[in-house]
Each structure stands twice: as structure tokens, then as C-alpha cells.
Amino acid sequence: MKITHHVSDELLLDYSSGALSEAWSIAVAAHLSKCSHCRATYSELEEVGGALLTGSSAGDVSDDIFENVLERLDDDKGFSAKEVKKNAEWAGSFGIPTVVADYLPTNSTNLPWKSLGLGVNQIVLDTKDKSATARLLKIPAGKKVPHHSHHGRELTVVFSGGFTDVTGDYGPGDIQELGGDVEHQPWVREGEDCVCLAVTDAPLKFSNVAVRLAQPLIGI
Ligand SMILES: [Zn+2]
């Protein structure tokens, strides 16, 4: 997996200090589960943060916390059926990491996709986060998502397939961090549906009036 889009330092710092709410944290953790580069940076931040908190040297950082995180990340390597939770084996076929699969219903044999129209499907993750929404999206190969910008921040982590927009080309493992100022029209790669996690803290702003009118109905 060649990852070219990483978590920004600011976001990683917020994540490591616990400043991110649940929905954003899932996106960062999902990227970390795929990206050894960011895991290494995260480890360093943890050491520095731990040392600052305890006023001791980096070597004395609580091993427990650190190892728990690493264990969780290790769970996602490779996605063999054994490593992915048994009742979430189907999630592995889309490259969905455990940190996301943990939020999906466990009593169904198939992912409970809900149609958003235009062939796009979503599953809203069942978090306790009231400030942001995390949703799994499946967008058909070759599809253009309607033009939109954002009232707030949007994080997207790709699990399978990929997309291109004005900011670049995104494939499995890549994370996209957008502020409210960017208007974009993601275009899904040909050949494979794009399954990704999208976290938003406000409704998207679609340029197309018809799409905007339908927003309350489709819940995005
Ligand atoms: Zn990374």
C-alpha cells in the first residue's frame, strides 16, 4: 500500500493529546492502522507528551497506554480473517480496519448500507459524538460526487478504490483533511468502488440547488 497523504502534525498532536472528539479520532486511528510512517511519528509524540506529563524522561512513559495503542494498531495489519473480528469478517474485504468495524452492527452478515441516491451508499457509525458524524461511504467506480464545499472540517480515509479532486489523488490508506474553504468534486477511480470513512462536523454545502434541497431527506 503506497500512502501519499498523511495526517497533519496539528491533527496528530490533537489526537495524541486526547483533544479530538470520538468521530475525528476514528479517522486518525483508521489512517494510523494503515500507515507505519504516521505510527512512528505518533509514537514519538506519545513519548514526548508522556515525558512532559510526568516530568520524567521519555523512557519512563507509561508502557501500558502505549502498548495498548500499539496492540490495537497491530490488530489491523494484513486484515487476515483471523485478525479481523469474527463477526466483522466481511468488513475486511473492503479493507475496513478494526477501529471502524468495531462501530458497525455485529449481528448482520452483510454491511447494512443505506442508499443516498446516485448509487452512493452510507452507514453512519454509531458513536456517542454529538459534535461530528463519522460515516462509511461506498461510491460507485467512475462516479463524480456532486460539487460541494464544507461549513466545517472534513476528514476522509480511503479503504478501497480511490478518488481524485482538485487537491490530489487518494488511494487506500490515504487521508484527506479539508477545511471549509475548499470546494471540490471527488471523482472516484474507474474499476473499483470507493469505500471510505468521511467525518464531518457540519452538513456539506452542495453548489447544486436540487442536491441541497434533498439534503435533509438523505441526511448528509
Ligand atoms: Zn500517514
Walk me through this protein's architecture.
The chain has helices spanning 9-16, 22-34, 36-54, 63-75, 89-92, 98-101, 209-218; strands at residues 114-117, 120-124, 133-139, 148-150, 154-160, 163-165, 168-170, 175-178, 187-188, 194-200, 204-206. It is an alpha+beta fold and 220 residues long. The protein folds into two domains: 9-101, Arc Repressor Mutant, subunit A; 114-218, Jelly Rolls (Sandwich). A six-stranded antiparallel beta sheet has the order 1-2-3-10-5-8, covered by helices on one side. The protein has a three-stranded antiparallel beta sheet with strand order 7-6-9, with no helix packed on it. Strands 4-11 form a two-stranded antiparallel ribbon.
Biggest sheet strand line-up: 1-2-3-10-5-8
If you compute it from the alpha carbons, what radius of gyration comes out, rounded to the nearest whole angstrom?
18 Å
Q: Percentage of helical residues? A: 25-40%
Dominant shape: globular
Number of helices: 7
Ligand roster: zinc ion
Order of helices and strands: HHHHHHEEEEEEEEEEEH
Q: Count the strands?
A: 11
> How many angstroms does the end-to-end distance come to?
30 Å
- Looking at CATH, which topology of the largest domain would you report? Jelly Rolls
Taken together, the total number of domains comes to 2
CATH architecture type of the largest domain? Sandwich
Mean pLDDT: 80
Fourth CATH level, the homologous superfamily of the largest domain: Jelly Rolls
Structural class: alpha+beta
Any idea of the CATH class of the largest domain?
Mainly Beta
